[in-house]
Amino acid sequence: MIDIKFLRENPDIVKENIKKKFQDSKLPLVDEVIELDKKRRENQAEADEIRANKNKISKEIGALMAQGKKEEAEEVKKKVAESAARLKALEDEAPEIEEKIKTIMMRIPNIIDASVPVGKDDSENVEVERFGEPVVPDFEIPYHTDIISRFSGIDLDSAREVAGNGFYYLVGDIARLHSAVLAYARDFMINKGFTYVIPPYMIRSDVVTGVMSFDEMEAMMYKIEGEDLYLIGTSEHSMIGRFINKMVDEKSLPLTFTSYSPCFRKEKGAHGIEERGIYRIHQFEKQEMIVICKPEESMDWYNKMWSYTVELFRTLDIPVRTLECCSGDLADLKVKSVDVEAWSPRQQKYFEVGSCSNLGDAQARRLKIRVKDEDGNKYLAHTLNNTVVAPPRMLIAFLENNLNADGSINIPEVLRPYMGGTEKLIPNA
């Protein structure tokens, strides 16, 4: 959510930003909110004037009564009553106008960074850089569920009976590998100086609307029936929500966290063989990184954060690339975002395994996360989030890139301490 003062003073910039995001249907919202804001300020000025005149008029009535001018005093009293009624009407209308402004402002997209490429959707995202040499082995790479099945490591049929499509059982060495990757990612980020946190897995609606757009909320979130609670789609939601209505001491910045959580997503509209198995699912686990910092430091942190993910994947012998998200692919709160994509030898292409986003002060404005400096000045913090690793999806890249011709799986050196020293997984069949 952008600053209404900025919108008021720069409506053309806001409209141009909407056009860059190919959301022309939202253009009228700018004029709507300007008119409502004008009415709000006019009403406030009138209400202030009525309150300011109240004592003056009371003294006037007293003077008239003292002079025996009762009829004149009664006339002034009538005006006082009319003013009081008008003041009440203005006070009653104020919350309604405020709510209308808030609702509209939450639909107007954040101002994207000038470096973001303009494009309609993810097909126009721009490759930035590749890390590691993508390799296609001289033997066939099976579909990922077939690889896992050789280790008796997955049971989709039982999961389907228990919970429906989009769920899974991971078993044995594969389940251990899944947990090992998360544990390694946790320690990797702790060694980068991040504080490890396990957050709540449910959040209230005021936090949901504070951390994401309405469109994202509808597409992603599962609501707990009968309660004001939603299952989180990522730990970013509850991690940023932790600071709702908080005043943060500037000396404590930057706040750097790495959080673990299960994630729950609706994931509507997935099709094709690569969307089945454990690629696009309703439940998964993730290690996330969150930063709350000064505005002038947010872009530096943005670049550090995605580079940490790249570094982690390279230690696991997985080639990756970074992909700059274009304007039309950015969620409404995001200023800038980059996807990290892993190489799939089977598909001979890259696929998304994580995303790093700078949200500027949008989440802080919605959640009222403010910073106080040593002089007592207050301002809104900037918030950023990034996927460290999100198995089981990343397991697809791991298994394909570490698969041998005999069906065994190499365990990179950095992961062996989390796998009991195992150097290679041997299939059962």
What share of the residues lie within helices?
40-55%
Rounded Rg: 28 Å
| Low-confidence sequence ranges | 270-275
- Judging from the principal axes of the Cα atoms, what is the shape? elongated
Biggest beta-sheet profile: 8 strands, mixed
Strand order of the largest sheet: 1-11-12-13-16-10-9-4
Structural class: alpha+beta
Overview of this protein structure:
With 429 residues, the protein is of the alpha+beta class. Helices cover 42% and strands 20% of the residues. It is built from 13 helices and 18 strands. It has helices spanning 4-9, 11-20, 27-66, 70-105, 144-149, 156-163, 172-190, 205-211, 214-220, 235-241, 298-315, 362-367, 393-401, and strands spanning 126-131, 154-155, 169-170, 195-197, 202-203, 222-223, 230-231, 247-249, 255-264, 283-293, 320-324, 336-344, 349-358, 370-372, 378-380, 382-389, 409-410, 424-425. The strands form five sheets. It has an eight-stranded mixed sheet, with helices on both faces. It has a three-stranded antiparallel sheet with strand order 5-7-6. Strands 8-14-15 form a three-stranded mixed sheet, with no helix packed on it. Helix 2 (11-20) packs antiparallel against helix 3 (27-66), helix 3 (27-66) runs antiparallel to helix 4 and helix 8 (205-211) packs across helix 10. It is elongated, with a radius of gyration of 28 Å. The protein starts with a helix and ends with a strand. Residues 270-275 have low confidence and may be disordered.
